[in-house]
Amino acid sequence: MFGSKDRFLADLVQKGYLNTPKSEILQAIAESGNWQEFEEWRISTITEFNIGTEKFQNEDWFRVIVKCDYEFSCVCPTIERAIEMAGMYQQLIMNLFTQVGWPSWASISSVKP
Asked: CA quadruple 92, 98, 104, 108: dihedral positive or negative?
């Protein structure tokens, strides 16, 4: 789309998905203002997903927060884009863990100082 030959992040979007249907996410947002889900993707490793609404440029947009030691957030104009970004952030977190470890580690090669 933007002329970059590096497809890493674009490929993460294609791999990412949420287990919850869009209709359930929208229903939770309508009822409580926020959808939240927790997904365990390895033993005792749980990602927290949140999608809610907030004002951005005087319009209702969707705030996405995905965290599992790393934390990523953005605002999106549509629920479809919010779901894409949440899935991409989950894939990014898993790739960061397997390639560079958690940010709470002492360094890339050592868990403890």
From this structure: negative
